[in-house]
Amino acid sequence: MEWSGNDGRVTTDPGIVEMESCGVCGAQMSVKRNVMGPTGFMEAMGKGKHLHDVFTCLDRGTAWHQRIVALKNEAINLASRRLRDIIAGEIDEILRTKQVPE
Q1: 71 phi and psi, to 5 degrees?
Q2: Residue-wise pLDDT tens digits, 38-59
Q3: Residue 33 in contact with residue 23, Cβ under 8 Å?
Q4: Confidence of residue 61 (pLDDT cuts 50, 70, 90)
Q5: Is residue 61 a contact partner of residue 33, using CB atoms and an 8 Å limit?
Q6: What is d(CA 102, CA 90) in angstroms, rounded to the nearest whole number?
Q7: Exposure on the CB side of residue 17, measured as CA atoms within 13 A
Q8: CA–CA distance, 84 with 61 (Å, rounded to integer)
Q9: pLDDT band for position 75 (50/70/90)?
C-alpha cells in the first residue's frame, strides 16, 4: 500500500504529462490542459497565476474516495504496522465496493 501520493488532483506544467493515475483509487484521471490560474494556496493568496494542466479523478468528490484519503492521511504517521495493516484492509474493502463501510 502506498500511503502518500496524489489525492485525486495533480497539477503539472503544460504538456509535460500525457496521463496521470489517481493516487487514491488508481483510475486514469481526466485532464484540463493549459489552465491559467494558481496551483497552490500561497500563489492564490499572492494573486499569482501561471499556465498548467490539471488532472482530476472523476470520483474525487465521492464519499468513498474522500474516506480513503482520510484513512491514508491517518495511517501516514502511525508507528504501528499492525494498525496500518488494518487500515489497508479497510481501504481494500472500500475500493472493492465503492462504498463507505458503516
Answers
A1: -65, -40
A2: 999 999 999 999 999 999 999 9
A3: no
A4: very high
A5: no
A6: 11
A7: 17
A8: 24
A9: very high
